[in-house]
Specification:
With 269 residues, this protein is α/β, with parallel strands linked by helices. It contains 9 helices and 5 strands; from the N terminus they run βαβααβαββααααα.
């Protein structure tokens, strides 16, 4: 019997029910003062996503909890493009970039302002509605309203001291976020520069090859033909391979070694 699947609304949002409509969910969250759970998922292919769906999100205990405590947004990246309306495709990509999501599922928890990130949760085979709720409650301690209530309970001096700590933590988190963004930009620039170097090296190699004459030229063309054949064999194998696991890795390494050999020989001209 197939596992029960989570149903998700396309438009509009109500507490405790999954929706693709992030803007509607933010609006309701602000009105009702409840946090948001963003599920970055690949619903029709991601194994861990399906495990969380089966073990947590389809359970009555989860649904009973969520209807009073959460706005839930599905940010889906399925293989079947019909599963996500066109109007959400670009927005989903933008959210993935904004939150730096690199794997699925990633659960991003936001405060009721729809912007302040409280933390992130991941999938797990042993997770249950109760354990996932416990993880969420751990993050909810950092909600602005909860923090302010805690500060007020401490009295003026201690409360102000803790508020200062909260502000300092926020500053450090923002600095870390900006540093991560700078690293990402630098990595892209480095990648672009390395690509340019590789292209220029090819141009230089082609220039040297054009200067070859006689027997040297003939030998160069023979090796180049062998390299072209080796590359064709490599890509044909990649497309039609029947091996798997260690056997596939061994075969890939063998084919790649042949290409490297001819590349090295060409580089000597």
């Amino acid at each position: 019997m197939p596992a029960e699947k989570v149903e998700s609304d396309i438009d509009g949002a109500v507490p405790g029910k999954w929706t693709m409509d992030f803007e509607a969910a933010k609006k309701v969250a602000a009105e009702k003062k409840i946090p948001l759970l963003l599920d970055f998922s690949g619903t029709d292919w991601c194994g861990w996503c399906k495990i969380m769906e089966e073990n947590v999100f389809t359970k009555p205990e989860w649904q009973a909890y969520a209807k009073d405590n959460l706005m839930m947004v599905l940010v889906d990246f399925p293989r079947d493009k019909n599963l996500v309306p066109e109007k959400y495709v670009e927005r989903n990509n933008a959210l993935k970039s904004e939150f730096g999501v690199r794997g699925f599922p990633t659960f991003v928890v936001l405060d009721d302002d729809g912007a302040t990130e409280l933390g992130r949760l991941t999938a797990g085979r042993e997770k249950s509605p109760a354990s996932f709720q416990k993880e969420l409650r751990g993050l909810f301690r950092f909600r602005s309203g909860v923090l302010e209530a805690y500060c007020a309970s401490l009295g003026a001096e201690a409360g102000n001291a803790y508020r200062a700590m909260i502000a300092e933590l926020a500053a450090k988190e923002e600095a870390a976020k900006q540093a991560d963004a700078a690293v990402e930009v630098a990595q892209k620039k480095a990648g672009t520069a390395k690509d340019a170097i590789a292209r220029y090296k090819k141009e230089m190699a082609a220039f040297r090859a054009d200067q070859l004459k006689g027997e040297e030229r003939e030998e160069y063309e023979k090796i180049k033909a062998k390299l072209d054949e080796a590359r064709a064999n490599y890509f044909a194998w990649q497309k039609n391979k029947t091996e798997s696991g260690a056997e596939a890795v061994k075969k890939q390494n063998e084919l790649a070694a042949v290409m490297r050999l001819y590349e090295q020989q060409l580089a000597e001209f």
